[in-house]
Amino acid sequence: MEWEALLAVEAADTIVGVLHRAHRQDRTPTLPPRALYEDNRDFNEAVDDSHEPGRFCEVEFRPSEVQGQMEPESHRVYFAEFATSSGSPPVTGES
Fold first, then answer.
1. Tens-digit pLDDT profile for residues 22-62
2. Which domain holds residue 80?
3. Does the global pTM surpass 0.70?
């Protein structure tokens, strides 16, 4: 019975250790969608030039703004591809 308790304690310790290491490693700062959108004018202009503006209730929306606000993850992915192909360094939000 004592060995089972010891095994349970060791297993719990291992799990806590793995979770703690994973938590400490995931310290990547993420940009708010608005910051990524506002800081990349060239990319936004390229998106706007390649797509028609959207209209909703007589209000016109820029494609880059819609993508940046509604799909921030795909906006980041497309920006990374754009930055790689154009040779521009990606904006990281760090000074």
1. 877 766 656 565 556 677 788 888 888 988 888 889 889 88
2. 29-86
3. no
- Closest to 89 measured CA to CA, from 42, 25, 32, 49: 42
Q: Is residue 21 part of a domain?
A: no
Q: How many domains does the chain have?
A: 1
Contact status, residue 53 vs residue 61, Cβ threshold 8 Å: yes
Average pLDDT over residues 64-80: 82
Cα–chain-centroid distance for residue 80?
11
- Does residue 38 belong to any structural domain of this protein? yes
How many angstroms separate the CA atoms of 81 and 38, rounded? 17
CB 46 within 8 A of CB 39: no
| Domain assignment of residue 20, yes or no | no
Is position 52 within any domain? Answer: yes
| 72-86 and 41-50 helices, crossing angle to 10° | 100
